[in-house]
Every structure is written in C-alpha cells, then in structure tokens.
Amino acid sequence: MEAKTKDLWVFVETKEDGSAKNVGIELLSPGRELADAQGGKLVAVVIGCGTDAAVSEASAAGADQVIVVDGEEYRAYTTDAYVTALAYLIDKYGPTTMLIGATPNGRDMGPRLSARLQTGLTADCTALAIDEETGCVAWTRPAFGGNLMATILCTDHRPQLGTVRPGVFKKPAAGEAKAEVIREDYHVPAEAIRTEVLEVIREASEEIVDLEGADIIVSGGRGVGGAEGFDVIRELADALGATVGASRAAVDEGWIAHSHQVGQTGKTVGPKLYIACGISGAIQHLAGMSSSDVIVAINKDPDAPIFGVADYGVVGNLFDVVPALTAEIKKLKGN
C-alpha cells in the first residue's frame, strides 16, 4: 500500500490495568526525531481495554496525536484482534512508518501485520536513523548470530515496520498532555478471533529480575569462573542497591539463571550505571547494554573489547578489584 501521510506511528502496548508498557513510551523518543525528519506527526496508537492511563502517558510523553481503539475483545492480547484493528487503522490513516516494541506480543504481531499489509518488517532493532540518500528509516539490528550489525532499508513498500528492543531508548520526560485524541469505535467480531485466553499463569520457577527497570546493574561474565564466582558480584550489587546481570557465556555455563542475561538473546538495558565484571565485550553483549549512561569495565585483559565502550576501565583480576570496591562503598555508606 502507499502511505497517505508522512506520519510516524508508535504502538503503545498496554498492561492489564490499562497503563502503558515501558517500551511504547520509550519509542516515542526516537519516534519524535524520526517524525520530525520525515516531516510528519508523531502518533501513538493505543489498543486495549480501559486504556485512559496509557492515553495520558503517551500524550504527556510528546505524542502529537493518540489514536485509541478500546473494547472488551482487546483486554487480553490475541493476534487476530490486534492485527485486524491495526490493519484497519493503517489502511484508514496511511502512516509511512510504525515502531513496535519487541515484546512477546510485539514479536507475534509484527510479522502477521507485515504479511497482512504486504510490506517489510525489520525485527529486533537496536538503533534507528533516517538514511540521507533515500529518506527511508535505517533499521539497525544484530545479524549472523550477533557477530555484526546490519542496517536495513524498506525502500519499495509502506508502511515501514520494525520491532525495537525494550530498554534501547530512554523514556522522554513527561510534560503537559497536549495530544489530540482520536477514539476509533472499531470492534472485531468474536468469530474472527480464533484464540481465547483462558488463564494467565505467571512463571514462578525463577526469581523475578527487573533488569530493564534497574538504575544500577552489576554483571558477571565468563571471568567469574563458576557459579560461586557470582558471590562477589552479588555482594557488590547489594552494597550498591543494584540488580545482578550476566553475559550469555555465564548463563550458558549454567552459573546463573537466564532471567539475569543481558545482551542480544537476553535483556536490553540502559541503567544509569553498568558495571561489567569479567565480561570480554562480545558484540552480542554490547548490543544489550551500550546505551547505559555510565559503563565501568573490570577485566584482566587490557585488550578486551568491553574497554572500547567503557567510560571507566580497571585492568585487574575481578576477585581482587570487586571485593575492594565493595569494601570502599560499604565504608562510604557507614556499614
């Protein structure tokens, strides 16, 4: 299909209580820059049931316009209901670009939507820009197992679609809610929804680890040497009030649960402080934490790639450096 406008849309996914999930609000930050570069409006699209909180959040986060579809059939996510509603909206308004959070729901919805619209989809993006030659969105994502970063253009079809990893961008500062709100009374017939959510079972087998919402993360990698090596990582995290993270190598070795993994196949994070202990800095890991405000690297290899992105680097054995750092922090805190 052809774009009818130069507008950029951001899909704002909702929680059970009708508030916005973080990633939708985060995407309004790059969305603002891309919309301005394209010469169009920044439009937040909210689908759910009882969505007033999400509408207010999107408006306060800088959206020019919020398009809302609210109904009981959207209370629990189903592919059929959400894709049908979005395809209707896109056909009616004709945006040129749409950003979707790479959540489990977004990763399910994006490919189905692109097939319905006969356009391209770039999945799991970690960077966004405008290509100067074509004016298209330049979608950057890890490729070949994370060994390199690929930049992809969708030159021939509209809208340009992409899913973007949570935690890559910072939330815009909340301001005054000034967006124009358009409420679409669009309902999907029950017979068109082929699945039904009977029950939501929350997995409790692993501890809950909020890496994406953490202000400080202390991560361990292959250099910790084993599960017991994470003891010094946890002690430093406790002293800082931080969350414990890990590289894929440590998770693959079974030293720590996958819920702690930072990187391409784990969580993408952007804390105020990220301390990498015994992590070499493979591109898979850097893709998940390089947007942190301040990065501190502790590694005995002076040539480790992690030092290339670190604001501060300590060359040394983590089992000497980390306990010393923990002791100094406790001393400063009077413990």
Describe this structure in words.
The chain has 335 residues and is of the alpha/beta class. It folds into two domains: 8-192, HUPs (Rossmann fold, 3-Layer(aba) Sandwich); 216-332, 3-Layer(aba) Sandwich (Rossmann fold). Helices cover 27% and strands 23% of the residues. The chain has nine helices and 15 strands. The protein has helices spanning 22-26, 28-38, 52-60, 79-93, 104-117, 230-240, 248-252, 283-289, 318-332; strands spanning 8-12, 42-48, 65-70, 97-101, 121-125, 127-130, 137-143, 148-152, 160-164, 180-184, 216-220, 243-246, 273-277, 294-299, 312-315. β13 (273-277), α8 (283-289) and β14 form a beta-alpha-beta unit. α4 (79-93) crosses α5 (104-117) and α6 packs parallel to α9 (318-332). The model has no long low-confidence stretch (mean pLDDT 92).
Q: Which residues form runs of ≥5 with pLDDT under 50? A: none
Question: How would you sum up the major sheet?
Answer: 7 strands, parallel
What's the overall average pLDDT, rounded?
92
Indicate the CATH topology of the largest domain. Rossmann fold
Q: What is the total domain count?
A: 2
Shape type? elongated
Number of strands: 15
User: N-to-C SSE series?
Assistant: EHHEHEHEHEEEEEEEHEHEHEEH
- The fraction of residues in strands falls at 15-25%
Helical percentage:
25-40%
- Could you name the CATH homologous superfamily of the largest domain? HUPs
